[in-house]
Amino acid sequence: MTDTYDALRARAVRRFRWVGLILPLSVLVMLSLVLVVLLPHMPDPAAIHWGLTGGPDGFGPAWTFPAMMAGVGGGVTVLVAGLALSGIRTNTGGRISFRLMAAIVWVEVSLVGLSQFASAVAQIGLDDARDAPGVGGFLVGGLAVGALLGFAAWKLSLSVPADESRGGETPAGLELGPGERAVWIRSVSIARAGLVALGLLIALVAGLALTTTILDIRLSGAVSVGSWITIAALALVTAAVMFGSVFVVRVDGHGLTVRAPLGWPRKHVPHASIRSVDVVHVSPMGDYGGWGWRYGVGTGLGIVLRAGEAIRVTTDAGKSVTVTVDDAATGAALLAGAIPDDDDGRDEEGSRS
Minimal CA–CA distance to 49: which of 121, 118, 134? Predict the structure, then answer.
């Protein structure tokens, strides 16, 4: 690995620590402290939940606002930034980009922080929290500001190109004799780091769903629409983790097939559309921003369940599909062996005859 790459990598990490961790946490702490100072001027109980009709339908202690801002906002910020930084340890020369993760952090900080702050400040001086205004405008405003801050964080963060001295390896094609057929099958499951990260995400959503449901029942005797939406989000996240934690990778005469044990999701790349095959080293956070079924800027579709070796195929259309799997060299060699030579199956422009 070159000194230039190491220097760029260190600079990108330092920049992200400020843009994606220290500054957003500082904003959340500042907003939380301001709300603590304003607590005596808010009604008790305060409006802490709003229904689809626009008016408040859930009430609780005013300290819920700074607690939620520090707990949920700060917790998500630390989780996202921590995952991004931890993924760098597994990156040994690949492309590194903190831009997406930095943008996600600031969108979350704005949506949670500013909307919570505005919802609390709007109740200052009210005698009865039932007179609190709707929060739809605050949410839209928080999202709009978040988009702007996310774009700024994207621009401020750094992207480090892959170290050319450690590029992907193109395997020699595995030649089969006349009438011979070969099938290569491997199963890959998500790494422990990915399980921990996704488990924390599920725990966070579950805690939020449980908290809102308990508050609804205690304060109004029924579960609100907002709580049902949170419960639905929990079910969706849990299902996504269950369907995306194990994949079966198959290379045969039809091409490359990656599928979940139940058959979906599934991705098939036929031999006829493959232009090249490489064995690459993948860092989930550094290359794709996480684990699972992902899309990376410049790296295309990735079925990324752990760090390490992976098969990457590039189609005639220029699209890439990458799957992390053990013994990637063997699977890639079998795939490469079925690709016609340039003077055998392609014309001068690279299309198949």
Answer: 134
Give the predicted TM-score (pTM) of the model: 0.67
Same domain, 151 and 197: no
Residues 138 and 65 in one domain: yes
Domain that holds residue 221: 191-243
Q: Are residues 199 and 321 in the same domain?
A: no
171 within some domain: no
153 in any annotated domain:
yes
> For residue range 209-254, what is the model confidence (pLDDT) as tens digits?
887 788 777 766 777 666 787 788 888 888 877 888 899 999 998 8
